[in-house]
Amino acid sequence: EADTLNDRLPELEQKTGIKTKIESFPSAEYFTKLQTLTAGGQLGDVFWAIAHQGWGAYFMSNGVALPLDDLVKADNFDLGQYYPVAIQAAKVFENKLAGLPFKLQPFAIGLYYNANAFAEEKVTPPTLDTKYEELVEIAKKMTKVEGGKTTRFGYLPLQVGTAQGGYETLVVTTRAFGGDVTDKEGKKATVNTPEAIAGVKWIYDLVFTHKAAPRVQELGGDPANPQDAMFVAGTGAMYQGGSSAKSLPTRVKDKFEVKDTMLPIGPGKSRGSMAGVDFIMTNKASKLQKESWELTKMLCDKETGIRLGEGRGGASGTCGARPDAFNDPRLMANPLHQVWIKQAEEAGPLFIPANFRGGELNTLIAQKLSGLFNGDEKFEQKFFDDLNTQLQQVLDKPKP
């Protein structure tokens, strides 16, 4: 995303005279870093936040973030430019506007595949109408074993491995089968229901029964996103990913053709989506609130939304949270983009922990699923009861 900022921030200075300094931190440290800066009175004027981990609500409840409602009203700014579900996500605390929507994706419900490999194996690739049981058979057919070693897995699920297998991917897995991670109020853990367990079992069977997906020990490449690296290297025929993976061709280059569709509609009558919204917030203590508002509008305008969706330089291909960006001809020219438009329009409701401790939920889920898909944990009701108990303990904590 640095490419987008480096292009657009000079435009802001030319038009308004506002100069901007970028401060960036590693993603794993980001939330903690913001808390530290806030405590020391050094938080920047404008900052990025993730809705589904409760960051927006956290900064609003602690009085750190400036509600933007008065600025919107004074500027006669049209919030109708954004998807309604994105505005809903930005109003998670007392129905006040915590920020403007920066990006939107319906989480990792995308299914990317190596079109060349399918052609070579003479296997019909998945479509929007493929059923879950059919996807299992496709994954088995596309798995290649040579000399007793799997050289290509049929399916690369994000649920396997601590880097990606957290809250977001567990939501997709459970919702598609009629379950969920929490109730809609974000107060009760629900991962030990039959529906939620059925979703995880589908992945578990792909790994351990059908051996068409890798165990944790079989992941390779970039530790931050090993499934992405494996797909690019050709050691995975299909790859579960979010709209951010639309930039895959910039990394695959001319090795093979990438095509995409969506994960199947499951027994829960959905593909498991939830509105993943990033938004831009303003520090309430900022002495440059007018300038911060102008920067926020630019970061959340149509042009920035399009550039984000282009996935320049191999960066995330997730679009700005606006219909005019999603439907722009520049993005429509990317054949991987088109299947995401309807999914953005129909993204499932956003659930966040009532105590804003989404980061803790994410870490706990990633650790527990890593043990399960490493073979260290037994797939049984007790595993899910224990996970549910531990998640509930996090949900029962006071707000930070």
Folded structure, characterized:
The chain is mainly alpha-helical. It contains 18 helices and 8 strands. The protein has helices at 2-16, 30-39, 55-61, 69-74, 84-90, 115-121, 132-142, 167-176, 194-208, 226-233, 248-252, 289-299, 302-310, 323-326, 329-332, 339-345, 358-373, 381-395; strands spanning 46-50, 100-105, 110-114, 144-146, 149-152, 238-241, 258-262, 276-282. The strands form 3 sheets. A 3-stranded antiparallel sheet has the order 1-8-2. A hairpin with a 2-residue loop joins strand 4 (144-146) and strand 5 (149-152). The longest helix is centred in the C-terminal third of the chain and has 16 residues, at 358-373. The radius of gyration is 21 Å and the shape is globular. The model has no long low-confidence stretch (mean pLDDT 93).
Structural class: mainly alpha
| Strand runs, count | 8
Number of helices: 18
Largest sheet: 3 strands, antiparallel
* Cross-sheet strand order for the largest sheet: 1-8-2
Q: Helix coverage percent of residues?
A: 40-55%
How far apart lie the N and C ends? Answer: 30 Å
Give me the Rg, rounded.
Answer: 21 Å
Strand content: 5-15%
Low-confidence stretches: none
Helix-strand topology string = HHEHHHEEHHEEHHHEHEEHHHHHHH
